[in-house]
Design a protein that fits this description.
Blueprint lengths: L10 E6 L13 H20 L3 E6 L2 H13 L9 H26 L6 E4 L2 E3 L12 E7 L1 H11 L2 E4 L5 E5 L6 E2 L2 H9 L3 E4 L5 E5 L5 E3 L6 H11 L4 E6 L4 E3 L7 E3 L1 E3 H9 L8 H14 L4 E6 L3 H5 L5 E4 L7
Parallel strand pairs: 1-2, 1-12, 2-9, 3-9, 4-10, 12-16, 15-17
Antiparallel strand pairs: 4-8, 5-7, 6-7, 10-11, 13-14, 16-17
Helix pairs in contact: 1-3, 2-3, 6-8, 7-8
The protein binds adenosine-5'-diphosphate (ADP) and phosphoric acid mono(formamide)ester (CP).
Adenosine-5'-diphosphate binds next to strand 13.
Length: 327
C-alpha cells in the first residue's frame, strides 16, 4: 500500500443522497444510476489525493421503494421481500456500483487502495414513535391521484414530498447504534476506502441479550451518517445532494443561497420550516448534531461536482458552531 493509502489523515464521511443517484426519466433504470456513481467517483478520489481518508455512505430511498414495488408486482410467483432485506439488497447493489466505480477511478490514477462495502446493520428502538407515524419517502414520485389509488388498492401510506410530487412513505426510526462500527473503524485504520451504512443501515432491534432481528423501516441516511461520523470522530461530514447550497425561501422569489449557517441559525430556520421535511431538514439536522458534538469539525452540504471546492470553502453551505468565527 502506498504512503497515501495509510490509515492516517483527516477522516471525512461523505453521504451521497439516493435521489442524487438518479437523473434519468425512467427513475428505476440501473445504468443511469451507475453512470451517476461513475461521475461521483472522481470527486471522492480527488479527496483521497488531497490526503483525506474517506468513508462513503449513501441513501436508498428511491431504490428500496423500487425493490418493494417489484416484489409486490411479482407476488403471484415469488415470495415477497421483507423491508429489512430490501434495504440489504440496496446496500449490495449500490455498494457494488461504488466499489466498481471507485476501484476503476483509483486504477486510472495509479493509486493502490482497496475498496470494501460493509453490509451494515443499524440498531433502532422497536418502541420508536416513528413506527406509528411513517415519514420516509421511498420509490417513485407520483401525482396525487395515483398515490391515493395506491393507498386504497395496495395499503400504502402516501404523502407529498417536498413539493416534488407524491410518494409512498414508510417508518423511519432514529438510528441508535451502528452494529458494525468497530469493523468499519478497523478497515479505515488499515487504509481501506470504505462504503458503509447504505440507506442508513439495515434496521434491526435487539432483545436485550444482543440477539438482532430485522424490522420493517428505512432509516434516514443523513441521521445515520451523522451518528457514524460522530462515533468515528470524523473531521468532516459532507452531504452531497441535488443542490450546491442550502437556501432560505427555497423555490420562492425571495430565495437566498447560504454560504454559512451557525448552529443557532440552522435550528431557528429549521423550526420555522425553511428546510423541506424528509429532504433538506434531516441534512441540516445531521450537520447541527455533528458540529455540536465536534465544534472543530466541518459540516458541509453541496452537490457532488463541488465536493473539492466546498472543502476548500469556495462553495457549499457550511454549518458551524455558534462561537466559531466566520471566515
Ligand atoms: N431550503 C432548501 N434549500 C435547498 N434545497 C432544498 C431546501 N428545501 C428542500 N430542498 C430540496 O431538497 C433536495 C435534497 O433532498 P433529497 O433529494 O431528498 O436528498 P438526497 O440527495 O439525500 O436524496 C434538494 O435537491 C432540494 O430540491
Ligand atoms: N435512506 C435514505 O435516507 O435514503 P435517501 O437519502 O435516498 O432519502
Amino acid at each position: 500500500m502506498s504512503a497515501n493509502a495509510s490509515g492516517n489523515g483527516r477522516l471525512a464521511v461523505v453521504a451521497f443522497g439516493g435521489n442524487a443517484l438518479i437523473t434519468d426519466n425512467d427513475h428505476s433504470a440501473i445504468p443511469d444510476q451507475f453512470h451517476n456513481v461513475e461521475a461521483m467517483a472522481p470527486h471522492v478520489v480527488d479527496m483521497i489525493e488531497d490526503g483525506w481518508r474517506v468513508l462513503v455512505t449513501h441513501g436508498n430511498g428511491p431504490q428500496v421503494g423500487f425493490i418493494l414495488r417489484r416484489s409486490e408486482l411479482a407476488m403471484a410467483e415469488v415470495a415477497p421481500v421483507p423491508m429489512d432485506y430490501a434495504v440489504a439488497d440496496t446496500q449490495g447493489a449500490i455498494g457494488y456500483m461504488f466499489n466498481k466505480a471507485l476501484t476503476n477511478e483509483l486504477r486510472r490514477r495509479g493509486l493502490a487502495r482497496p475498496v470494501a462495502t460493509v453490509v451494515t446493520q443499524t440498531l433502532v428502538d422497536a418502541a420508536d414513535p416513528a413506527f406509528v407515524n411513517p415519514t420516509k419517502p421511498v420509490g417513485a414520485f407520483m401525482d396525487e391521484g395515483s398515490a391515493r389509488r395506491a393507498a386504497a388498492e395496495l395499503g400504502w401510506t402516501v404523502a407529498e414530498d417536498a413539493g416534488r410530487g407524491w410518494r409512498r412513505i414508510v417508518a423511519s426510526p432514529r438510528p441508535r447504534a451502528i452494529v458494525e462500527l468497530d469493523t468499519i473503524r478497523s478497515l479505515l485504520d488499515t487504509g481501506v476506502l470504505v462504503v458503509a451504512c447504505g440507506g442508513g443501515g439495515i434496521p434491526v432491534t435487539t432483545n436485550g441479550q444482543g440477539e438482532l432481528a430485522g424490522i420493517a423501516a428505512v432509516i434516514d441516511k443523513d441521521l445515520a451518517s451523522e451518528l457514524l461520523a460522530r462515533q468515528l470522530r470524523a473531521d468532516a461530514l459532507i452531504i452531497p445532494t441535488g443542490v450546491e447550497k442550502v437556501a432560505i425561501g427555497f423555490g420562492t422569489p425571495q430565495q437566498q443561497w447560504l454560504d454559512r449557517l451557525t448552529v443557532s441559525q440552522a435550528v431557528a430556520y429549521a423550526e420555522s420550516g425553511q428546510f423541506g421535511e424528509g429532504s433538506m431538514r434531516p441534512k441540516v439536522e445531521a450537520l447541527v448534531g455533528f458540529v455540536t458534538a465536534n465544534p472543530a469539525g466541518a459540516g458541509v452540504i453541496t452537490d457532488a461536482a463541488n465536493l473539492g471546492r466546498a472543502l476548500r470553502r469556495e462553495t457549499g453551505t457550511w454549518i458551524e458552531a455558534d462561537d466559531r468565527p466566520a471566515l
